[in-house]
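[09:14] KT: can someone run the structure on this one? pasting the chain below
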Amino acid sequence: MRLESIRLAVSALTLALAACGGGSTQPSATPAGVAERTTIDFANIADYSASRLPAYFDRTVTALDNSPASNPINDRVATLGRVLFYDLRLSTNDRASCASCHQQALGFTDSMRFSNGISGAATTDFHAMRLGNLRYWRPGSTFWDRRAASVEAQASQPFHSLVEMGWGGAAGGFDALTRKMAATAYYPDLFAWAFGSPKIGEARIQQALAQFVRAMVSSSSRWDTGYAEVFSAAAPNRALNADLPNFTAQENRGRQLFMTGVGGGGAGCSSCHLPPTFALEADARSNGLDAGETRLFKAPSLRSVGLTGPYMHDGRFATLAEVVDFYDHGIQEGPALDDRLRRGDRPQRLNLSAADRAALVAFLMTLTDSALTTDARFSDPFRR
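[09:31] RB: done, structure tokens below
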């Protein structure tokens, strides 16, 4: 009996330690309930923590990573995040999931201007943002208006939305959600497998979803293929201004316009949308969509931007051509306008030719990453 008491005490301590960090002390048993409902091979789970990245994803890129030390990627926790991301049962009426608005085939955005959640009638107030390379937005804040301080904080807000997942107000919030999850045949086992104990709570849901989303690194577009052939860390501007051998003349013209500053005859796009991640520069401000704008906006990475419109936080532009036209001659004055979009005391007017505007669109299309949009690690795991 004494040996059994010691064994039970050690087991409890192991689970407690695992629950704190989700580390190597996690139990190895397969979570049976979720194994029956998904295609996940729990004996050989996906690798989310050690992606093979091109050489130009070096220290200049990793310095932009907004992953907190308190939530490093762990393959089990990220796998839990994948299940959470796609589970319709996490909405009040089993109709919506994170993936309903962030669809993998579309670069984790929505082709609708505003998205449906639990209702076919009500819609969100803003357009769903692409998620690839979200981890390389250095401030770490999320949503178009930067209202959430981190990816972890963002993960909770759709659950509280009466339109998206429906748990706000009288629905009971996270207490009601976690009770629903605890009553399933799989979440207690899955949380124990990922964290070391079956406790289901908001903080753990945030951790898992944030890890899954941060693992969505885009680095396999046609631009990447070409840039890998010319990249040199020692070259001027890291060879970003070099023609790419796999591009057409039009695409290389668009690349030149994108990478070159206005003073050098380009459009200066890369001063805000930083290659190779094409995530937004940390100190970017408003882009002048409306006159008198006082808000600071956040844009997603431009990776896979050509897969679908609409564009901007309110989806006002249906095509990339409209977006380029706006930056060419439509920027409006306002207190929050980024200085990089000014010429003297006025908003910039590039006045590009029609051919150059078309070339910029052609270049943006080369950022499409079909590897990320088909990667099984980020696909729907449920047996539908």
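[09:33] KT: thanks! Residues 111 and 308 are 6 Å apart (CA to CA).
[09:34] RB: yep, looked fine to me
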